[in-house]
Amino acid sequence: MVTGYLSGRGVRYVLKNLNEDAAAREEFLRRGFRLPPVLVIGDTAVEGYQPDRFDELLDREDECPPSTP
Q: For all residues of the chain together, what is the average pLDDT?
C-alpha cells in the first residue's frame, strides 16, 4: 500500500526489508517502532499507513526547497 501510494505521487523512495536488512531492523527497533510500515519524510517518521499524514508532510517538503551547502 505505501509503495503504491508513493509511486502514485511520483515520490522516489528507498524500501528497506527488515527481514533481509539487519541494519534497518536495528534502526527500526532502536527508534522504538513496533510495526511496519514506517515512512520517514524529512525529519518525521510516520508509523503505519496514514495517507493523510503522508500528504501533509510531503506537501510541506514540496514547499521547502532543500538547503544547499
A: 89
